[in-house]
Amino acid sequence: MRIIDLFSGAGGLTFGFYYRVRNNRFIRNKKSKFVFANDVDTEASKAFIHNFPDITMINRDIKSLTDEEIYEMIDGEPVDIIIGGPPCQSFSTVGQRIYDEKATLYEEYLRVLRISHPKMFVFENVKGILYMKETYYAKDENGKIKYETVGKKKNGEEKKKPIITGYGKPVIDVIKNKFANIDNTLGYTISCDILNAMDYGVPQNRERVFIVGVRNDLSVKWVFPNKHLGTPLRIKDAISDMPEVSEGETRTRYEKPAQNDYQRLMRNNSEKLTEHYCGEYGEKMRVVIRNVKQGQGRNDFNKLVKAGKIDKKYELTSGYSNTYGRTSEDQPAPTITHNMTAPSGIRCIHYAQNRALTPREGARIQSFPDDFSFSGYMGDVTSQIGNAVPPLMALELAKQVEKTIRKLG
Question: What pTM value is reported for the model?
Answer without folding.
Answer: 0.91
